Structure formats: structure tokens, C-alpha cells
Amino acid sequence: MATTRNGKTGPTSPVVAVKKSEKATTPAKPKAEPKTKAGMKRKRPEKSPEKEKVEEKNAPLPKKRGRPPKATREQKTIEKTIENGETKDDKVEDKKEVEGEEKTEENSEETVNSGDEKKDGEEVNDESKDIEMSEAPTEGKTEDGKDGQTDDKNGEAKYSTVDNKEPSTSAEKKAKSQAAVKKQGPEQKNAFDEIKSDEADTKAAAKSEQDDKSANISANDSVIEDSARSAAIPSSILEKGIIYFFFRGRVNIEDPEGIEDIARSYIVLRPLPLGAKIEEGPMQDDGKARLLALPKKMLPKSRRDRFLMFVEKTGMSIEEVREQFAGNEYATKTAGTRNIPAATPSAEGIYAITSTGRESHLAYHVTVPKEIGEVQKGLGINSKGSFVVSTKNPEAPGPANATFSNPAKYPEDVQKKFGGLRWMPTEPEHFDYEATQFLVIGEGMGELGRAVEEMGKDKKDGEKEKPVEEIEKLEEEDHARVEGLKEDDPVFADLGLSSKEYHHLQTTW
Fold this sequence. Notes:
By secondary structure, this protein is of the alpha+beta class. The chain has helices spanning 14-25, 49-58, 70-73, 78-81, 88-113, 120-135, 170-184, 191-218, 227-232, 318-325, 374-378, 412-416, 456-460, 467-483, 490-495, and strands spanning 2-3, 9-10, 223-225, 237-249, 262-272, 276-278, 289-294, 306-316, 328-332, 336-340, 344-355, 360-368, 384-392, 423-425, 437-445. It starts with a strand and ends in a 14-residue tail after the last helix.
């Protein structure tokens, strides 16, 4: 019965039934087996258990989707690539040997399964030929021109060089490399090692020269106290001494070509007794030097400029100053070796910290160089000048970019002078504490300005000199001292610097 479109059932057509029965009874054609060109069926060689183990061992791992793990992205060092005395090349050679063994096994199996194509007598003849070839003397020569077999006296492994092939095992390779090292002699340094050794030799020579200079400086008495001069010192002069100006180039910039190539500028103050006068020779080391840092790189160039400075080190000897200004190298993961150049002197002269009552001033007079160059102008250094200086209260709050996490810690008597003020006129004792912050405001550009104003009480006292007279007298003494030095650069003479490590004072970029 068949179902119509109206859903009714009817009689099934006999033709359709016959066709269905034919399809059901028709047998499926068998698939033809693959045949070779000669009409012979190819029989796959049976794999030995040893061959299956080798294939499983050498089978590649399934690739994983996504980014590779961090371990595969990291660059391996030479030590990691060497395992049990075998390098990557050894492993490749071993892999080739395994593949060669697999091929020989396949060839032998094909020979066995090919039938009785070869007779027993021929196989015996082939084996005898192989034995004769293995026992025949080798005619190959090694790299040294000698026979392929090495001497047992040297403890080296024997190997044949009939096909001019290198030894495949790790032991033979190790023996050959040792023989090559013996032949070449002692290990030679590469270019990088030679540069490093040259730098070490230069630093050692510079240190020896600087130590000799330090010994001469310690034996020199260039500062003499005078009681008469001490009595005539103006009351407005709080401190006087020798001043040095330095700058340091940016990382990997050995020779700056402008202010943009400078990382930071420095000032070194070496105070003297108020009644002292300067004699001949380099300045003696009293271990009281102070290092002031100027992050702005240059001093104020106008009365509108005001820059923040801080005390980086106090109570320094000349040896400590040298170490602070020396160059240095450090390694980074991304940029390799980075070089911090040594600091370069830019000027030398005398200074005085003065007070006019409500303000304090830092005045200076340059002795060297004689003429101000483009370097000095770029750094805001004039032949003479002055600044208004004010010290910040370390206990007062301030902006985050201008406040130290470890501010200066003053004794109680010094801290009381601030009262509730955030700033106070700078006093010389403030420079004896690290992390002291002080503000410098432009005042005298090419002149001393208000820094040399005379106090009212000194005008009535006829025995007191004027501040400008004392500063000029100190500058004349320093000039005479510099002229009598054996070295052309007074900074090198005073601090015992070596030209092998530091640049001389320069006036041009």
C-alpha cells in the first residue's frame, strides 16, 4: 500500500517494488587491491620492535595553538645548550646515525622479503668482500697529513678516515677538539676582552697617578691663618672658600655638544677659615668639601630665574670627590652595557656666603678660565656673580616633585631657627647636612650685586674691611696660586684628578 497526497493509502506499484528488490539483491563490487607495475602485490616489511621504539622517540610532538610559552621564547645560553659534554652538533650527528641505522634495517628487510633472488653463495661472497674492506689498510690522511689512525700514546681515540668523514661520537669529537687546542697553543683573547683589559689597565694607571697626587696635596700647606686678617673680616661674610663647577654628560654621551646633552650640574664648596689667606701650591685636603647638585643643569641667568638645589654629600675628602665624579658602566637586559661618563670641570674660583640681614647671598668670582666661553655661558656661569639663597624647612610640607622622602635632619637648635616658616635665609651650617634643599634666585649677572653690601655696624668700625675688598683680595691670592701651579688645570691639581680618566676644563663644546 502507498500513501497519496491526500493521506490516503493505495496499492503499491509492481514496477517500484521490483526495482527496490533489485537494488537490495545486487551484490557490492569488491575493491581492487593495489598492484605494482609488474603485477605483483607489494608486501609491506614488518617493523622490528627496536625500529618502532626509535620512531616513537623521534616522532614530533603535536603543535599547540596560541602563543609559545615563555620558556621557548627565552634565549638559551651556551651553558644550557651543552648537556653531558655534547653540543647541538653532536646531537645532530647522533640523529643522523639513527636515521642511517633505520635505512639499513629497511634495506635488509626488503632483501629478505624479495624472495630467493640472491643465492646463498652470492651472499657469502658479499660478506667476505665486506670483511676484506674493513681489514684493508686505510689510505686516507688526516688534517695534519698523517695516517687516519691516531696514536694511542696521546690518549686519543682511533678512527678511520677512508671517506674523509669526521668522528661521529661525542668522545671522538672531544678528543679531536683537545688536540686542536694543544696545537693552537694558549687561548687567544677576542676584541671585546682586549678592550676590557685596556680599560682596566687605564683605570689602574689613573688610580696610581691620583694616589701620588693625593700624597703631595696632603703634604702641602697652602692655607695659613692670620689673626690680623681675621679681626678685619666684615661681619656680613659668613663663610669663604674655593668653589668648583662641574657637569656630567647624559648616559653614553662622552662629549656633550650642548646643554641638552648634560644630565646634571654640580658645585663643590671647600670652605676656609675666615681669617685664612691662600699660599702657593694645590689646596690642602681638610676633608670638609661639600657637593651641591643642580638638577636644572644651569644656574639662574636672570633675576626671574629661581632653581632648587640640594646638598648631595658633605664632609668629603678629595678622594671621595674623585669617586663621586668618576665614570661608571652598568648592564641592562634590553639596551646592553650603558656608560655613565665622568664629570667635567667647567670653572674654578672663590666664593663667599654673605648676609644683609633679611637675605643671604652666594657670591663667586671665577679664576679659571680667564675668559668665559660658550660652555660657561650655557651653564649660567659669569666671570663673577651672586644669587639670593634660602633654605627650605625640612618639616614643612611641599609639592611632591620638590620634596625628599628622607629630608634633612637638623639638630634641635638649628631647627628652632625656622620657627613656623617654610623658608629662611641660608646659613653655612645648613650645607653640612645631606638632603638640605635651598633655592637660588638670580641676582648679580657679571657683578656681585647686593651680596657685597656693607653692614651698618661695620661702617662705624674703622678696622673692618668692606666685603668687596675681602672678596677681591681672596681672588688675587687664588690667581697667584693658580699661576704657580705645575699643572695648567688647577682643578686637576687641587683634586688630584688624572687626565686618563677625566676631561680637562673646557670652554667650548
